[in-house]
Amino acid sequence: MTKSSKGKELQDKLSYKKKNFWKISSEKEREHAFVFADEYCTFIDEARTERLSVELTEQILKTYNFLPLTSDSSKKTPGFYRINRDKNIAIFRAGKKDISEGCNFIVAHIDVPRVDLKQVPLSEDGTTQLGIMLTHYYGGIRKYQWMAIPLALYGVVIKEDGTRIDISIGEKDGDPVFTFADLLPHLAKDYRDKKMSEAIDADKLQLLFGSIPFPDDEIKDNVKLNCLNILHEKYGITEEDFISAEIEIVPAFSSKDVGIDASMVGAYGQDDRVCSYTALRALLDSKDPALSSIVFLADKEEVGSEGNTGARSDFILDFIADIIEFQGYDSSKILRKVLAKTNILSGDVTAAINPSFKEVHEKQNAPLLGSGVCLTKFTGSRGKSGSNDAHPEFIAKLRKLFNSHHVNWQVGELGKVDVGGGGTIAKFMAEYNAEVIDCGTPILAMHSPFEISSKGDIYSTYKAYKIFFNHYGG
Ligand code: MN
Ligand code: MN
C-alpha cells in the first residue's frame, strides 16, 4: 500500500465531502435499501390521495396494535393515533422519559400537487361532441407535464344523506383511463413561440371523459347525458352530487424501478409520501425510544398548510394536549413547556441536482441524488424570506447523532439563491418555540407526474428518522 501524501491526509481530515450511499454502504445495507424501497413502493402505489394515505397508515398502525386516542387510554398498547376528517393523522408512541421532558416529532405531508375536478365538472363540447370534465389544479404544477399521459380518478362523493361513495377509476385491471389531449406539433406554430408558463392555460386541462351520445334525438348534450347515466348506474350519483365531492386526477401508472441498476424509484407523489412513509416506519420500528415520539402526517402543505387539515390547524396541538392529559398532567399548565422542549424534523423532499438543469443549483451547497438524507438549514426564497432557519446548536447535535450511527446524510439547499425557492411545514412548527429543521429525501423532477428518488436516500431517510426517535434527547 502506498503511503498517502501529506496534502491528501490533510484534505481528508479538514474537508467536508458528501458521501455516495452506493460507495460507502455495506452489501447488507444495500440489500436493506432495495427491500425497503419495495415496501415503500407498495405504499405509494395504493396511497394515491391524502385520504387513501390516511386509510393505509391506519391499517398499518392496526397491525402494530396501535389504538385510536380516546378518553380510555388505560389499555395496553404500543401507541395511539388520531385521524382528522379522514385527511390527516397524528401518531404517538411513549418514550422512556416522561412527556414533560418534551418529544421527538417528525412532521411530513401526504397531499400532492395534482388536478382536481371542479364542482360542476361534466360538460359536452358542442363542436367536437366530446364529453369532458372541467378541472382546477391543486398546488404547483407545470401544466404541460400533465398533457398526453394516462390519468386516473380518485376521491369521494358525499350524498345529501351523508353516504360516502368512494371513486377509483383508472388503475385496476380492465379500468379505462382519462387524459388531457395535447396539441399535435404540426399545428403548434402559435404555441411553439409562447412562454412555457403560458403554453398550457388552466382551462386547457379538460379531461377527456366520453364520446358516445345517449340515443335520443329530442335532446341536446347527449354525450354528457350518457356519461351522467353511466356514473348513475355505476355509483348512483347525479350531477348535483359532484358539488359535495372531492375527486382528484392523478397519473394512472404505478411506481417503477429506474435505471439499468434499478437503483432509483420513479413514481407520482413522492413529495412527500416518501418522508411520510419513512417517518411512519421509523416510529414503528424504533426500539425503546428516548423521548416520546410523534409523527404527524398533514394535508394541505402544497397550498400553504391552510385549512383545518393542514399543519397550521390546532388539531396537532389538541392531540398533544390530550396525550399530556392522559399522562396525568394539566395540559393548560404544561403544553407550552412541552412544546418548547420538543425537537422536530420537518420531513420534506428537497431538490437534488438535475444533470440536465445544473444551472439552477449552486453545486457546492445542493444535495446530490444518492448521497443520503438531506438536512436543510433554511428554505424560503430570496433573502431567506418565509423560512425557518434552524439553529447551529440543533444541527450540531443531529450531526453528531447521524455520524455516530453511520447515517448517510448531506447538507443542501433548494436551488440558487435568487432562482426561486420553496417552503415547508418547518416554519409553522417553529411557531411552537420547538427546535425545527428540514430533514428529508432529495429527489429529481419534483412536482412532476414521475418524480425520481434514490433507494439509498429513501433508506437513509428511514435510518435517520429511526436513529432520531431512538436516541435524540436520550
Ligand atoms: Mn413537500
Ligand atoms: Mn411540494
Q: What does the model show?
A:
There is one protein chain. By secondary structure, this protein is of the alpha/beta class. The chain folds into two domains: 18-112 and 268-471, Aminopeptidase, CATH 3.40.630.10; 114-251, Aminopeptidase i, Domain 2, CATH 2.30.250.10. The chain has 13 helices and 22 strands. The protein has helices at 6-14, 21-24, 27-46, 50-63, 189-192, 196-199, 222-235, 270-285, 315-326, 331-340, 392-404, 426-430, 455-471; strands at residues 67-68, 80-84, 88-93, 103-109, 114-125, 130-138, 151-158, 164-169, 207-210, 245-251, 256-258, 264-267, 292-298, 343-346, 350-351, 373-376, 380-381, 409-411, 421-422, 435-440, 442-444, 451-454. A nine-stranded mixed sheet has the order 1-2-3-13-4-14-20-16-18, sandwiched between helices. Strands 8-7-10-5-6-9 form a six-stranded antiparallel sheet, covered by helices on one side. It starts with 5 loop residues before the first helix and ends with a helix. Bound molecules: manganese (II) ion (2 copies). One manganese (II) ion is lined by residues 271, 302, 447.
